[in-house]
Write a structure and sequence with these properties.
- This protein is an alpha/beta fold.
- It folds into 6 domains: 95 residues, no CATH class; 61 residues; 157 residues, 3-Layer(aba) Sandwich (Rossmann fold), CATH 3.40.50; 117 residues, no CATH class; 201 residues, no CATH class; 147 residues, no CATH class.
- The protein is built from 35 helices and 21 strands.
- The strands form 5 sheets. It has a 7-stranded parallel β-sheet with strand order 9-10-8-11-12-7-15.
- Helix 4 crosses helix 6 and helix 21 packs parallel to helix 24.
Length: 862
């Protein structure tokens, strides 16, 4: 790459040191020239035209002019800001304050108001327009082409010009390509120290991730720096404004949305509240937030600032002063005022007290000069070029050429220069700054198409001292073994073990559907213990249910929520009326160990030994809650989600191969209940209380049994199951002409049963040779009892094929035995992971990412 060689700051100083004054359009260059003065003199050696006319180092009077417009005219804040910017820009470019009115599209009431106000307002623009340097002054102008017409109005008839380029050409060194922004910042921080900070400048695009990463890295390494975040980027100012925005957001703002704001303030936000509406919280839930809310609703902006200061333990002096300057400090806080303040702070640079020493951080589009011997350039992406404003008084070609000049000079600052870039980001190519296309003769799309070297971590070992983004190693230590698993833990371990790790590490907030499910379960439990009261006070109970979930639903959703909750309770009542619980001893279950919030709201007690029973069986490695022990062999679980068939639930419980959306609840609960009734058939009934909510809301009354999905456990082998009458009837439930019926009807159930009790038939896919031998024996057995024909052989084979479908809605003894082994394996895996690490993949196929809740926390090799 060839580029015009830029004169260094030292070269420029030598060129102008004997003059009375040197003017430049670049404020950092003017300051750098002043630093090089090595002999006594009166006044500054370098200045910008506006700086010289106003006798200010860096004039910053836009804020004062804006305040004048909003206090002395009828313009709104946005109108005033836009009119001010357009008028000052046109005045600067044309040298005439009235020039903007020559363009019809800008000859508006707002612009005319701004022109007339600025015509008399005290400002550096006004002083520059009224000033002219003495013709006797020995003046040098550096980079004359970069001066505006208003700047030129200051110039005398005769002056010396100094070119910013030497006339020679030079080349840039190669780019250093890193795999990530973090790697770039790691490499940067590794090269710096507090002792060398004054010698280093860092150029970056402030709108990219580099800005906060570099600031955080320097702070973590205790390396001083200057520049960096402005007033609006101050964490407390941003948090204050966002908290006020939260107050006015409305009924759909959730606690989880503002948790990142409250946590740094020391406000402990219970994770379970994450999905609750902020405006539905009781003051005692988050007292710190309640104090700010009260100040906002009942006081002035001054009161809101004081409330935040008390909560955060900080002083927002600059914010208070700026609001006072704008005349809004003692006004009521409204959403309109908040919008105006937010707009103002994003549009104007409010001065802040900055460090005056350390590493110099500079925005890539703000200047051409960095007065440091060592300069690091980070990113070099599209934000390093300015886009010409779309206004008629600016020639876009001239504007781009001036910015290209600035860019070429910028790249040549410092005696040591390092260009640290990324080639790709999130799988996409990083586009180099557009100006490189004018500097390189070759075509390219990414930095790796240009001269470069690749680095992983700038040649240092990750984790070396001074790298702030590498976690310290974990210390060795033993962990206590986990003794039991719930069905949700089993799902996560089987799908993605690292998901189980983050679920244990990061508490999951209670979501609206979870809150709805909880209150429905509590209402069903309440009906078991107080049926007459619930029938008599049905509307009161539903009102209490709605109140319990009110914090999760917006106001317009409450009627819908009430209808759904009423239908759910009505369905549960109907089911329990027709399937009354039977009192029995259940020694395998502990007493209920959780409160019934709904009962507490209604002043009732839940003391049933049949509802919400907890179990934890270390020897089986399982734990969980059972909604209802309906009888000695029957379990009930209420569901508020969509209904599945028994066969689909059995399919989702497959462990070999593992289903991509596993559901082990039925197997786990039946395994638990088998501890109590080891030799009895068992059933679990899933009652889907909202499955027919739409129909019931229309006044229809579906049969409640349609809402129940039942899965049964039989303590038998597959062959013993096949010998049962219901299987015989299922495989012969065809027309008389079907081969199954023609073969097995004459055989009869008794002969059929006798055969399968004497022969151990494996399931399809298990012991294929033994299975085929049993099938062959059954065919011969049937032929001897019926007839030696082809339809007998076909009918026997078809009937046996059907048997695998019939068993698809049952758990048999071998099934629960295999599941118990699976639980043992997963529990052993979990305890091994806790002492080593949690892998992402549980199988070669990898996780089903659609079933992973903490996807953003899980990094993969990809």
């Amino acid at each position: 790459m060839t580029l015009r060689e830029a004169a260094s700051i030292d070269d420029l100083y030598r060129a102008i040191r004997d003059t009375d004054l040197a003017l430049t359009s670049d404020p950092p260059l003017a300051l750098a020239l002043d630093r090089r003065v090595d002999r006594p003199r009166i006044g500054r050696v370098g200045a910008t035209p506006r700086g010289h006319a106003s006798n200010q180092l860096t004039p910053m009077d836009r804020r004062n002019l804006f305040r004048t417009l909003v206090t002395e005219t009828d313009l709104t804040w946005k109108q005033a800001h836009r009119a001010l910017d357009r008028t000052l820009q046109a005045w600067d470019r044309t040298g005439n304050i009235d020039a903007i009115l020559d363009y019809d599209e800008f000859d508006t009431l707002g612009i005319r108001t701004a022109v007339e106000t600025l015509r008399t307002a005290d400002s550096s623009y006004h002083k520059l327009a009224d000033s002219r340097l003495d013709d006797e002054l020995n003046l040098a102008v550096i980079g004359e082409s970069a001066l505006s017409e208003l700047d030129r109005s200051l110039l005398p008839a005769d002056y010396e010009t100094v070119d910013r380029f030497t006339g020679a050409t030079g080349t840039l060194p190669t780019f250093d390509i890193f795999p990530s922004a973090t790697a770039i910042v790691d490499a940067l921080i590794e090269q710096l120290s507090a002792g060398t900070a004054e010698s280093v400048g860092v150029v970056l695009d402030e709108s990219t991730v580099f800005s906060p990463l570099v600031e955080a890295g320097l702070a973590a390494a205790e390396i001083p720096f200057q520049g960096g975040p402005g007033f609006v980027d101050d964490p407390d100012v941003r948090t204050f404004l966002r908290l006020l925005q939260a107050v006015f957001t409305g009924s759909d703002l959730r606690v989880g949305d503002i948790e990142p704001l409250l946590a740094p303030l020391g406000v402990d936000v219970p994770r379970k509240l994450g999905e609750q509406r902020v405006d539905a919280l009781e003051d005692s839930a988050l007292p710190g937030l309640a104090t700010v809310e009260e100040a906002v609703h009942t006081g002035t902006l001054r009161d809101a600032i004081q409330a935040y200061e008390a909560l955060a333990g900080v002083t927002l002096g600059t914010l208070r002063d700026e609001c006072d300057r704008l005349g809004v400090l003692d006004t009521a806080v409204t959403s309109e005022l908040l919008d105006r303040l937010t707009y103002y702070f994003q549009s104007f640079d409010v001065p802040v007290d900055r460090e005056r020493d350390g590493v110099l951080l500079t925005d890539a589009a703000s200047t051409a000069y960095i007065d440091r011997p060592v300069v690091f350039y980070l990113g070099l992406g599209t934000g390093w070029a300015k886009t010409p404003p779309d206004v008629p008084w600016i020639d876009s070609t001239e504007y781009v050429q001036q910015d290209l000049d600035r860019f070429e000079i910028l790249l040549q600052n410092g005696r040591q220069r390092h260009y640290l870039v990324q080639d790709t980001r999130a799988g996409e190519d990083v586009t180099p700054c557009v100006y490189f296309r004018q500097l390189f003769e070759q075509s390219f799309d990414r930095f790796s198409d240009l001269p470069h070297e690749r680095y992983d971590d700038y040649g240092v070992e990750r984790g070396a001292p001074g790298q702030p983004f590498v976690a310290p190693p974990l210390t060795d230590g033993d962990t206590d073994d986990v003794g039991a698993l719930s069905q949700s833990s089993l799902k996560r371990l089987a799908n993605c073990p690292r998901e189980e790790f983050f679920t244990r590490l990061v508490e999951t907030p209670t979501a609206s559907y979870m809150a709805r499910g909880t209150v429905v379960h509590e209402a069903a439990e309440l009906y078991v213990t107080h049926p007459e009261t619930v029938r008599k006070e049905f509307e009161t109970v539903v009102d209490a249910m709605v109140e319990q979930v009110r914090a999760y639903a917006t106001d317009d959703r409450h009627p819908v929520e009430r209808t759904q909750l009423a239908i759910a309770l009505e369905t549960a009542m109907e089911y329990l009326d027709t399937n009354s619980p039977e009192e029995a001893d259940h020694d395998a279950y502990a007493d209920r160990s959780q409160e019934n919030e709904l009962a507490d709201r209604l002043g009732l007690e839940c003391e049933s030994q049949l509802t919400e029973r907890w179990f934890e069986v270390p020897e089986a490695g399982i734990r969980g809650f059972v909604d209802l022990l309906r009888g000695p062999t029957d379990l009930v679980d209420y569901k508020t989600g969509s209904q599945s068939t028994a066969s689909k639930l059995r399919d989702r419980a497959s462990i070999d191969p593992l289903h991509d959306d596993p559901n082990f609840q039925a197997a786990l609960y039946l395994l638990q209940h088998r501890q109590q009734e080891p030799d009895e058939p068992l059933s679990i009934h899933f009652v889907h209380v909202l499955e027919h909510a739409d129909r019931m809301a229309r006044g229809e009354a579906p049969d409640v049994e349609e809402l129940v999905t039942t899965i049964t456990y039989l303590p038998v082998t597959f062959s013993e199951f096949v010998a049962r009458r219901e299987v015989y009837e299922a495989v012969t439930d065809y027309a008389e002409s079907n081969d199954r019926v023609k073969a097995l009807d004459p055989l009869g159930y008794d002969a059929y049963r006798e055969f399968f009790l004497d022969h151990d038939l494996p399931r399809e896919g298990e012991a294929p040779e033994q299975r085929e031998a049993v099938i062959t024996a059954f065919i011969e057995y049937t032929k001897r009892h019926v007839k030696d024909t082809a339809y007998v052989e076909n009918g026997c084979r078809d009937a046996i094929d059907d048997m695998d479908d019939v068993v698809g809605t049952y758990y048999l003894k071998p099934d629960l035995d295999a599941f118990e082994t699976f639980v043992d394996e997963q529990l052993a895996n979990l305890n091994a992971y806790r002492n080593d690490s949690f892998p992402v993949r549980a199988t070669e196929d990898g996780p089903n990412w659609d079933r992973v809740d903490n996807r953003d926390l899980i990094l993969t090799d990809d």
